[in-house]
Write a structure and sequence with these properties.
This protein has about 100 residues and is an alpha/beta fold. The chain has helices at about 5-15, 40-50, 70-80, 90-100, and strands spanning about 25, 55-60, 85.
């Protein structure tokens, strides 16, 4: 599955919500390239859904390839909050979702 739209993430959230789960770990490769183009607005749209529906998300990957200052700031701000975290490993994702 590739997440191409905010509708795709809503479908996933709906499926997970039926299992009374409020935390999701997604590998960065699951997102379309548009997610990583901040001008597209897709990343903001998707992350807002998690805030709106009070679900937590950890995105796992190597974010060093995202070399823009905008992405660095976006990740830094997200990681300061309690809803969305950008992490390097699944272990970090589990820890961040269970400790906050």
């Amino acid at each position: 599955m590739t997440i191409n739209t905010s509708g795709d993430i809503l479908d996933l959230m709906g499926d997970i919500g039926t299992k009374e789960c409020s935390r999701i770990i997604i590998h960065m490769e699951t997102f379309s390239k548009d997610f990583f183009d901040l001008r597209s607005g897709l990343a903001g749209e998707i992350l807002q859904k998690f805030s709106n529906y009070q679900m937590k998300l950890a995105i796992v990957g190597d974010f060093t390839e995202l070399k823009s200052k905008s992405w660095e700031a976006f990740i830094r701000e997200s990681n300061r909050g309690r809803t969305v975290r950008f992490v390097s490993t699944v272990e970090e994702a589990i820890s961040s979702l269970t400790n906050k």
